[in-house]
Each structure stands twice: as C-alpha cells, then as structure tokens.
Amino acid sequence: MIDVSDRKLVIACGGTGGHLFPGIAVAESWRKRGGEVMLLISEKQIDTLATEGYEHLRFERLPSIAMPGLISLKMPGFLLGFFRGFLRCRKLIREFEADAVLGMGGFTSTAPLMAGRFRNLPTFVHESNAIPGRANKLNAKFATAILVGFEECAKRFDAKKRVETVGTPLRPKVAARPSREEAIEFFGLDPAKKTIMVMGGSQGARRLNELVAASVPEMDAAGLQLLHLSGPTDYEVVKPAYEKHPEAGVVKDFCSEIQFALAAADLAVCRSGASCLTELAFYETPSILVPYPFAADDHQTANAEIFSKPGAAELWEQNSLSEETFTRDLIQLAKDGERLDAMKRKMAELAIPEASEQVCDVVAAELG
User: Fold this and answer.
1) Structural domain contains residue 1
2) Are 64 and 42 in contact (CB under 8 A)?
3) Average pLDDT, whole number, for the chain?
4) Are residues 193 and 120 part of one domain?
5) What dihedral do alpha carbons 100, 106, 111, 113 form, nearest 10°?
6) CATH code at 207?
7) Could you give the CA distance from residue 42 to residue 202 in angstroms, rounded to a whole number?
8) Percent of the chain scoring above 70 in pLDDT
9) Residue 74 domain-assigned?
10) Predicted model pTM
11) Backbone angles phi, psi at 210, to 5 degrees
12) What φ, ψ does residue 278 adopt, rounded to 5°?
C-alpha cells in the first residue's frame, strides 16, 4: 500500500449511484492511506440520498448538466452552465491545493478534469462499463491515464492513452459483508424463505418494478419473499401490491445500508449497471439481469453479457418479458437450488474486491 500522507485528491462523481458509490469507495481508501479528499457531486436527489452517513467526507455540489445534441436549442444554455461549472471547479481545486483529479464518469467529471489539466495536475478517468459513454470518451482526452472496470473496455479507448484494468471500487460498508441472519433480521424477513432482492438501480426502473409488483401474489403463494428496492419515483406504484400481500416481503424506496440487502439475497433481479454488478459479484449472488434498453450504446447489455456468458447470471431482455413469463421463470429459477449454486460459484470468479486500492495505487504512483 503506497502512503499518500498530505496528498490531496479531488474525486468528481455523482449524478448516478454508478458514479457516486465507487467515488466514495476510492475516497475512503485514500483517507485510510493518510491523504485528504474532496468529492464533487451533483445537485440531484440521488446524490443527497446516497451521501447520507458520510459526514466525515467533504462534498461540494456542482450544477447538474447533461450535454444536449450538437444542434439542440439547449446547447447555448449548456455551454454557459458548463463554463460556470468550470470556473467553480478551478476555484475549488486551487483552494483545496489538489495534487490530482479523478473523474468517475459522466459529464459531472468533465469540468473538474479540464480544470485539473489547466493546473497541470495528473488527471484520471474511471470507466466502469464495458462500453464507455460519450462523456468518458470526451473525459479521456483530458486524462493522464484511463482506468477501466472490465478488460473488454480497454480496447475502446485511444491506443495512445495509458489504460489500466482495476475493476470497479466497492464501498467499505458493502465490503463489510454482514451474515445472512443479520440481514434477514435487519429487514424483518422470514429466515425460512428464499429471498429475491429486486433493485432497479439508484434511480429505479419503472418497467422492472411493474413486472415485480404484478408477480407478488404468485411469489407469496410459492413460498418466496421479495426484498424490493423500488427507487423513490416508483415507490407509490409498487407499494399497494405489498399492502395486499404483507407476507410476500418488504418494499423500500431507497436503502442506504445496501450491504444488508445483498447479504439477504438468495437471488437478485436488477439492471446491469457496472457498480451493481461489482457488488453482486462480491456477494456471489446469482442474478437475473434486465439491461436498461435505452442505455447509451446499449452498454448495460454488454455489461450483462460479461456475467451471463460464463453462467454467473441470466440475461433477460426487457422487451421480451410479459407479466406471465416473468413470474413463471422467476419462480422456476428461485426454486432450482442446483442452478443457483452453480451461478454462485461463477459469480465468485468475477469478483475484484480490491479495486479501490488498485485505483489509489495508480494515482499514488503517478504522484511519486
């Protein structure tokens, strides 16, 4: 472990849990080595929820901006907002006396990385997904080195750039790994029943939530229980199904103690964001992956295939699912103990538990 005492790292993350949670993981590892850290996040609700419990970390908020099409009428407003964000980043980085800047992806990282380059600091961008988004393709131009979560992603960047595969950082609280017994008690679930955890991602997933809500009566009748993390937007949509069948499980709009949800799960149903997949692999959780069909460059399908091809997960395309087939196939898999055991073993082979330490090693080595 390289000591970074008195070294100051700026981490630009936020906007989605897939950027924010790995950023927090790196921040915790950097502080453990003796360094200081400042995290730049967005003003979105998910950032407010996800940062609860991390009062020991310094967070600075930047306006939420998304790049429109090049010929969009929104482009002038975007450019003005971006310029203001860039000036704020320059000021924060200068006052913090940063030694390096790390961007965890998305346009939230662009202005900080540009500001870091403006001050001739080492800059790094992390791409968790198998296919980089357009934001990280841009961010890579301002990066000293590119860090990727999946080996498959490395070839998608400029060959002249230094690219290193480090995995996707895992939050320390997730790495704590509580026992199944502790997790079941935490949610007030039945320890005698198999638990299916449903998670649509930090911002939810309407169609996935609807499918699961429709399956609640059959799940209850089959002796299975659901731990449903719906996201704040869809909570009121799915809540009535559980009120009618209280023995079917628990529904929550958001869960900051995600380690208990992962530890409780015998099977997971979720989107295939890279951060989520990292956590599932660490907990060796057999999974049904339903990629978000409108993700940029269909990168969630590419992520899911990394897990489905070796048999660690099943890939179910959202457009092919009906309430009837979804419920039938979910119950069938949940009751197939032999199949779940095989998936569990394959999941374990895909875990990279020390990713945050590897990220810190690369940054620290560059600082010398």
Assistant:
1) no
2) yes
3) 92
4) no
5) 20
6) 3.40.50.2000
7) 14
8) 97
9) yes
10) 0.86
11) -65, -45
12) -60, -45
* 20-to-28, 106, 324 alpha-carbon distances in Å: 12, 11, 36
Cβ–Cβ contacts within 10 Å for residue 157, how many?
A: 19
The identity of residue 180, as a single letter, is R
Q: Name the residue range of residue 332's domain.
A: 174-349
User: Do 214 and 163 share a structural domain?
Assistant: no
Other beta carbons within 10 Å of 326:
22
Tally of structural domains, the chain: 2
Asked if residue 3 is part of any domain, the answer here is: no
Joined together, the tokens standing for residue 116 give 């870091």
Q: In this predicted model, what pLDDT tens digit does every residue of 172-228 receive, in sequence order?
A: 788 889 999 999 999 999 999 999 999 986 555 899 999 999 999 999 999 999 999
What is the per-residue pLDDT for 312?
98
- Per the CB < 8 A criterion, the answer to whether 331 and 218 are in contact is yes
Within 8 A by CB and 6+ apart from 87, the residues are none
Q: Is residue 280 part of a domain?
A: yes
Q: Same domain for 208 and 317? A: yes
Does 330 lie in the same domain as 185?
yes
